[in-house]
Structure formats: structure tokens, C-alpha cells
């Protein structure tokens, strides 16, 4: 069973980086299939902490080939600063492969992201300001720039002209900004071409050949299910498909090849940016989750909004991704609460609702219905097996598993690689 997808089951920041790194030592390829440097994946190895944005977390495992798939959007300046940062710390990054079909985040995409948000004012999405949405918009509008375009100056110039035509009108006439010069953009992009060249590959062919040879391929999602452009809390979402199907389109691998889909699930809930969040807490419990869980954005440094676990969301993630397993993270953060509320259903306009409503208006009105589960006070960070957990922590995990609709195969009890309880092996 060679191909596994590992993705966020909530609104991102579930601990995907740690989970990917944990498996990285046993897999041959780790592939990012969507998103870009809006992601912030933390990996802790011994006393070393790494924050990865664009690079797959497998880059820290020497035996593993990291791949940036066609579905990813690549900001070359960020790519090189991330690679340099890792090289300075002694990490070998020479095996990296980047799809020639991946789209490039250009400086004008970053500008458009920022001015659009400013223009939206109170209705802003709260994006990471990294140019993600405008780059995917150009891709869908068929005026995007791909990595392969950097190797043909004439084509690149024509494409940048086409992309800037409408944007300069918008920037000067609507947003009151200066027009962006085609030549300047082309020059900057061409400046990356030679440095990128050693990494550019036909990643679809490489990955499919690897799968034919029974190599193990892990697809690492960015963001999370509820941030998915199709299945998330639109319009407060990102502009790609973090859900399982995105791994197929974003890497060029057929669904028949995927054998396991692992949802990374935090033992409580967090969200960054705007949008509905039924279990959000505005009291000292929310503050305590933020403090104990270290819930501050890896990419933008914003405080994360925090709330109790939401089983309606988890069930939804199981359904839209066809999850085979969950990896439950940050259970240790819940140590010390006497009672832990868990949202089992919503009340919407006086009615009990068990599943995520498809209507945005209903979701905005959803009030959580809580069940209180008994807490524990023992330190669980040294637990190595399920049996090492206190009875109430075991019962909390079992209750979440039952409500969420897929087995919990691993539990995180700390940020480090070895602070993990493995229940069923993923490989
Ligand atoms: P990602 O975007 O899904 O990779 O998650 P982030 O790295 O943005 O946020 C997860 C944070 O939780 C990071 O600081 C991790 O080091 C940390 N983390 C991951 N798993 C655990 C865990 O089981 N317990 C604790 N205490 N921290 C964890
Ligand atoms: P990881 O991979 C949490 C959120 C932003 C904003 C919305 C759209 O670390 O889990 P974008 O810049 O993508 O257009 O912003 O999506 N967002 C994330 N939230 N974790 C992430 O990544 C995120 N990437 C984007 O805060 O609400
Ligand atoms: Mg993150």
C-alpha cells in the first residue's frame, strides 16, 4: 500500500508537519500537492525546531525525496530563502524536485493580495498576504506563469504582459497604486531560472514510476479541510483543495493509487483569519488553550482563535476525504481541565443538527451543543502506549474516535518526534 495522503481535518495547524516528519524516515517521497508558503509546518527534532512553509516536511529525512507538485504555487524568493536557511543548518536539500507545471507567485500577485484585503476592510478574509489567491485566480483565468515559462523569455514576456494588462488598470484606476512594469517582472523572474533548473522535473512521471516500483509516497496537505475552496467555509477559505482529491490533481496520481488517507486532528480546535467557528471561546479557557498550546501562527505570527473540539467538523472531514485514520494531536494541552466540553451537534434556529449544514447562513447561526467529558491532571507527555494514559484521557480519545467516524491510529502528547503514541502503524 504505497500511497498515503496526510491532511488537515480542521482549519489548518493541526500538526501536519510533525506527523509528516514522523513518517518521513520510512517513506521514499513526500509531496506537497497544493497551497504555497501560506502554510507554516513546525517540526521539532531533538532540540532543533524548523518552520517549513513551502518545502515538504520530508526534507528533514535524509532518505526521502521531497517533491513540490504541479498543484502548488511557488514564490521563488521564498523557496530560495527557505533552502538557504536549511543549508545553513546542515540540511541537505539537493534531492528536491519541483514540477515544471507549478505556478509561480509573482510580485504582482502579492501586491494584489494585499490591496484586495485592504479594500475589503471589515469583510476581509484575513489571508496570509502571500499572493496565494491571486496566483490561483491567474491559473484559472489562464494568465498564470508556470515554472517552465522561465525558460523561454519571449513566452514569459507575452504571458506577463497578458497578466498585467487588466491588473494595471485595476491597480491604477481602482486601487490608486502605481502600474507594475512588465520588464521589471520579467527580469526578476528570469533571475531565478538558472538557480531553479536543477530541481525542475516531470514530477508526474517520477511519482507514477515510483509507485509502479512499490516505493512509498506520502502526500502532505497544507491548510485543512474547512479551508478547502470547494468544501470549506467559503468565502473564508484558501484558494486550493487541501482535501484528499487535491492530492490526485495536484500531483498527477490517480485515485486508485491512494491506499490510506490520514486526517490530522487537534484535540481542540483553532482557526486563523476570518470566518465562522462555532466552538470559539472568548473567555479564560480560550486564553489558556492559546497559551498552553502555543497557538500563534508560524507564518504570520497572528494569535490563533481557539475553541473546544468539534465532532461535527471531524465527521465532515471523515466524509469529504474518505479518511481511513486520524492522527490526534496535542492531547497533552488538555491536561489540567476538570471537565472538557466537546461539541457533539449544533443548534440552528432552535433545532438540533448532527451534520455540517451546507448553507453558509445556517453555519453562521450554529450554536454548539456540548457534552462534558471528565478531564485528567496527570502529566501525559511521557506516555508511550495507550495504556500509559490515565483512564479519563483514554476515554476522551475513545469518545472522539466514536464521534468522528474513523479510528485514531496515533496520538500526539508533545511536539517532538518521539512524543507520539502509535496505536496502528501507518505503513
Ligand atoms: P501544521 O501547520 O499542521 O504543520 O501545524 P503547525 O506547525 O502550524 O502547528 C502545530 C503546533 O503544535 C506546532 O508548534 C507543533 O510543534 C506543535 N505540536 C504538534 N503536535 C503536538 C503535540 O502532540 N503536542 C504539543 N504540545 N504540540 C504539538
Ligand atoms: P497550515 O498548512 C491556518 C488561512 C488564512 C486565511 C485563509 C486564506 O500551516 O495549516 P490565504 O493566504 O491562503 O489566501 O488565506 O486561510 N490559512 C491558514 N490557516 N493554517 C494554514 O496553513 C493556513 N494557510 C492559510 O489565515 O484565513
Ligand atoms: Mg501551520
Per-chain topology:
Blueprint: E1 3-8, H1 16-24, E2 29-32, E3 41-45, E4 48-52, E5 65-68, E6 73-74, H2 76-88, E7 97-99, E8 103-104, H3 107-120, H4 132-140, H5 153-174, H6 182-196, E9 200-201, H7 203-212, E10 217-220, H8 244-251, E11 258-266, E12 269-271, H9 284-293, E13 305-307, E14 309-310, H10 311-321, E15 325-329, E16 339-348, E17 351-353, H11 360-365, E18 367-374, H12 391-404, E19 408-412, E20 420-422
Parallel strand pairs: 1-10, 1-11, 2-5, 2-10, 5-7, 6-8, 7-9, 11-15, 14-16, 15-19
Antiparallel strand pairs: 3-4, 12-13, 16-17, 16-18, 19-20
Helix pairs in contact: 3-4, 5-6
This protein binds guanosine-5'-diphosphate, 6-O-phosphoryl inosine monophosphate (IMO) and magnesium ion.
Folded structure, characterized:
This protein is α/β, with parallel strands linked by helices. The chain folds into 2 domains: 3-90 and 202-422, Adenylosuccinate Synthetase, subunit A, domain 3 (Adenylosuccinate Synthetase, Chain A, domain 3), CATH 3.90.170.10; 103-197, Adenylosuccinate Synthetase, subunit A, domain 2. It contains 12 helices and 20 strands. The strands form 5 sheets. Strands 9-7-5-2-10-1-11-15-19-20 form a 10-stranded mixed beta sheet, sandwiched between helices. Strands 14, 16, 17 and 18 form a 4-stranded mixed beta sheet that branches. Strands 3-4 form a two-stranded antiparallel ribbon. Strand 3 and strand 4 (48-52) form a beta hairpin. Helix 3 (107-120) packs across helix 4 (132-140) and helix 5 (153-174) packs across helix 6 (182-196). The protein is globular. The chain binds guanosine-5'-diphosphate, 6-O-phosphoryl inosine monophosphate and magnesium ion.
Amino acid at each position: 500500500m504505497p500511497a498515503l495522503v496526510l491532511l488537515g481535518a480542521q482549519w489548518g495547524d493541526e500538526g501536519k508537519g510533525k506527523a509528516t516528519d514522523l513518517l518521513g524516515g520510512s517513506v521514499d517521497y513526500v509531496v506537497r500537492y497544493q497551497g504555497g508558503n501560506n502554510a507554516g509546518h513546525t517540526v521539532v527534532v531533538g532540540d532543533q525546531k524548523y518552520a517549513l512553509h513551502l518545502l515538504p516536511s520530508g526534507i528533514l529525512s535524509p532518505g526521502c525525496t521531497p517533491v513540490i507538485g504541479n498543484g502548488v504555487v511557488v514564490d521563488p524568493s521564498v523557496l530560495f530563502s527557505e533552502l538557504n536557511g536549511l543549508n545553513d543548518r546542515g540540511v541537505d536539500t539537493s534531492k528536491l524536485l519541483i514540477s515544471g507545471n507549478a505556478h509561480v507567485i509573482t510580485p504582482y500577485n502579492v501586491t494584489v493580495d494585499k490591496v484586495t484585503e485592504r479594500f475589503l476592510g471589515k469583510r476581509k478574509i484575513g489571508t496570509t498576504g502571500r499572493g496565494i489567491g491571486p496566483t490561483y485566480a491567474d491559473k484559472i483565468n489562464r494568465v498564470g506563469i508556470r515554472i517552465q515559462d522561465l525558460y523561454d523569455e519571449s513566452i514569459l514576456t507575452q504571458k506577463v504582459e497578458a497578466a498585467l494588462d487588466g491588473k494595471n488598470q485595476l491597480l491604477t484606476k481602482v486601487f490608486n497604486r502605481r502600474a507594475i512594469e512588465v520588464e521589471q517582472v520579467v527580469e526578476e523572474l528570469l533571475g531565478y531560472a538558472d538557480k531553479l533548473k536543477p530541481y525542475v522535473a516531470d514530477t508526474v512521471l517520477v511519482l507514477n514510476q515510483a509507485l509502479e516500483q512499490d516505493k512509498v509516497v506520502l502526500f502532505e496537505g497544507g491548510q485543512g479541510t474547512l479551508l478547502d475552496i470547494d468544501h470549506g467555509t467559503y468565502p473564508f477559505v484558501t484558494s486550493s483543495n487541501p482535501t484528499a482529491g487535491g492530492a490526485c490533481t495536484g500531483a498527477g496520481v490517480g485515485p486508485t493509487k491512494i491506499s490510506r488517507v490520514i486526517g490530522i486532528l487537534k484535540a481542540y480546535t483553532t482557526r486563523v483569519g476570518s470566518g465562522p467557528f462555532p466552538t470559539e471561546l472568548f473567555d479564560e479557557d480560550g486564553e489558556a488553550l492559546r497559551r498552553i498550546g502555543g497557538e500563534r501562527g508560524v507564518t504570520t505570527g497572528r494569535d490563533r482563535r481557539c475553541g473546544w473540539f468539534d465532532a461535527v467538523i471531524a465527521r465532515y472531514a471523515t466524509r469529504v476525504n474518505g479518511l481511513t485514520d486520524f492522527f490526534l494531536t496535542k492531547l497533552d494541552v488538555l491536561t489540567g481541565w476538570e471537565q472538557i466540553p466537546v461539541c457533539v451537534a449544533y443548534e440552528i434556529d432552535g433545532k438540533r443538527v448532527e451534520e455540517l449544514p451546507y448553507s453558509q447562513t445556517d453555519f453562521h447561526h450554529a450554536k454548539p451543543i456540548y457534552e462534558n467529558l471528565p478531564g485528567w491532571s496527570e502529566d501525559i507527555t511521557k506516555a508511550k502506549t495507550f495504556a500509559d494514559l490515565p483512564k479519563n484521557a483514554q476515554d476522551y480519545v475513545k469518545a472522539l474516535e466514536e464521534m468522528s467516524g474513523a479510528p485514531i491510529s496515533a496520538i500526539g502528547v508533545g511536539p517532538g518526534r518521539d512524543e507520539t503514541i502509535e496505536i496502528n502503524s501507518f505503513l
